[in-house]
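Give me structure tokens for this 153-residue protein.
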Amino acid sequence: MPPVRIGVVAAGKRARSLVEHAYTISDQQYLGCDPDDGYNYPHDLYEMFGTDEPEWMVDVSGLEAELSAVFSPSEGSRVAAAEIAAENGDGPALYDSFEAFRADAEFDVVMVCSPNHLHADGVVPLLDDGHDVFCEKPLAADLADHDRIIAAA
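Here you go.
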């Protein structure tokens, strides 16, 4: 399976932490869970509320991440994210313009990790472009931005 190419919008501390975790995802048996902790989460939730567990949740051992593109207005943040990528064998394209990132970056999924009040300004255009988007919490800083994001999704 080819690596999942990740784009990042706003490469501050939150984003860099998520990127570091993405590089270790194949070390997990399933997302967010330690098989030796005695819990059966999230499997119990699927039994209670869903039908079938997604295949990726059961075994992510073959899932590899690649940081392929970074947009951040801060040069220092772009460089710091690129250093994490370099430690893991990647060399992402770096962008100081959101418009250039949207037009030229190559990724399978994009993580929006901007300050909370700017989430909608990043998420909505990316959804409109047809991208899969992970937005750091909270989804929006106010109800109007929340509604904009939901409408775009």
